[in-house]
Every structure is written in structure tokens, then in C-alpha cells.
């Protein structure tokens, strides 16, 4: 089971970037973030031992599609890489737009996790420092 300290990240990743995204997801999990991902990404991540919340693609209306997850505030960040296929670039546009409308940071790189890793430290009270 996962240990979530900071929130959740939604990852919608095209096939050619899944391996790189796997390493990114592991890094997010290591610093205390839960992972939401669509089916193909979820399958890969779970096969590699990560606990992942499944997310449906945009065309489903089950209340768990990626846009619902963003709109309902279940994630703090969105990592979105899409292929150049017509339907996926339209999906990517919608994901980025809904993220912006809901004040959720949406990115395509690993720069954010580098910053979050650098901030991941334990808080120690002043009283504990004197012991």
C-alpha cells in the first residue's frame, strides 16, 4: 500500500514516454505522492510494483475520467505527454486547459520532481535540536 504525505499526481503518458515516466512516477512515490494514471500507464506502473489509482480516458463518463479527477481536486499536479495523433492531441489540449482552469500545474517534464525532491526533508522542532 502507498504512503501519501503530499497529495497526488495524474500522469497521462504516450507510449514512447512510458519508460521515462515510470522513473518519474517512482520518484514522486518515493517523496510521498500518490499516482493516478490511465490504463496503459497504470498497467506498466503496477507491473513495476507501484500502487496506482486508475483513471479513465476523457470519453468515459464514469466520474473517474482524467478531467473529473482534475476538476474534483484529487490531484496537485498533472504530467501530460501525448502523441501527435489527432484524437490524443485534442485530449492533451483538454487536459491542459482543464488543469489551468482549476489552478493545477500541468507539465511535460521532470523539472518539478527535482524541485520537490530537494524540498523533501524532515521537520525538526527547535526543542529536539537541543537534545
Architecture overview:
This protein is an alpha/beta fold and 131 residues long. It has six helices and five strands; from the N terminus they run βαβαβαβαβαα. Helix 1 (18-30) links the parallel strand 1 and strand 2. The chain is globular, with a radius of gyration of 16 Å. The chain starts with 6 loop residues before the first strand and ends with a helix.
Q: How does the SSE layout of this entry go?
A:
Blueprint: E1 7-12, H1 18-30, E2 33-38, H2 39-47, E3 53-55, H3 66-71, E4 77-80, H4 86-101, E5 105-107, H5 111-119, H6 126-129
Parallel strand pairs: 1-2, 1-4, 2-3, 4-5
Shape: globular
What integer value in Å does the Rg equal? 16 Å
N-to-C CA distance: 34 Å
Please count the helical segments. Answer: 6
Q: Care to count the β-strands?
A: 5
Q: What is the residue-averaged pLDDT?
A: 81
Poorly predicted segments: none
Task: List the strand order in the largest sheet.
Answer: 3-2-1-4-5
Give the SSE order as H and E letters: EHEHEHEHEHH
Helix/strand class: alpha/beta
Amino acid at each position: 500500500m502507498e504512503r501519501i504525505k503530499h497529495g497526488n499526481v495524474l500522469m497521462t503518458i504516450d507510449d514512447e514516454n512510458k519508460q521515462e515516466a515510470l522513473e518519474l512516477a517512482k520518484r514522486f512515490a518515493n517523496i510521498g505522492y500518490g499516482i493516478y494514471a490511465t490504463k496503459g500507464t497504470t498497467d506498466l506502473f503496477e507491473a513495476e510494483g507501484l500502487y496506482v489509482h486508475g483513471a479513465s480516458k476523457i470519453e468515459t463518463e464514469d466520474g473517474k475520467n482524467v478531467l473529473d479527477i482534475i476538476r474534483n481536486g484529487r490531484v496537485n499536479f498533472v504530467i501530460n505527454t501525448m502523441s501527435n495523433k489527432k484524437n490524443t492531441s485534442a485530449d492533451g489540449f483538454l487536459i491542459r486547459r482543464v488543469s489551468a482552469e482549476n489552478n493545477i500545474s500541468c507539465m511535460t517534464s521532470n523539472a518539478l520532481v527535482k524541485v520537490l525532491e530537494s524540498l523533501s526533508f524532515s521537520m525538526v522542532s527547535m526543542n529536539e535540536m537541543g537534545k
